[in-house]
Description:
The chain is an alpha/beta fold. Helices cover 36% and strands 15% of the residues. A five-stranded parallel beta sheet has the order 2-1-3-4-5, with helices on both faces.
Amino acid sequence: MLQEKTVLLGVCACTPAYKALDLIGMLKRKGADVKTAVTENATELVPVAMLERMSGNPVSVKQFGNEYAWDPEKKAWGMKGDVLVIAPCTANMIGKLANGIADDFISTNAMAFPGPKIIAVNMNPKFWINPAVQRNIAQLKEDGYVFVDNGDPEHPSRMPPLESIEAAIEDVLS
Length: 174
């Protein structure tokens, strides 16, 4: 199902950021090419070198200042994928996307990405119940973002199982 598909994976700074390594491995075993971007804060939780090793691709962190070679045929990171997944996704990133704020690598590329977009949240339960966060989630759903349910009504703000994220990716690509 994921053979010859490119998954753009955005990783935000929260405790389960390390699970991105396992998600990359799962997707690659299904034949996907995984291109990863992380927020600068996420680099404190999951090493860029590990993400690069797992994905086999360079990892984008900064909006500006990344070293690159000029290539006139090169398209923006966000234009080269079949699906964009942000996992884990914080309340901060949800707020940016819902309100048109593009001030880092992931938010800028997410706004420009024309294909399906999936979000797997992870945040403090107090953030989750905040009316502003719920409004932002509702807005993103209205805008066509797919949110992966973690199946835990007691703790809806926890990151969903990786298998659920993989299933959501396969679903939007089918």
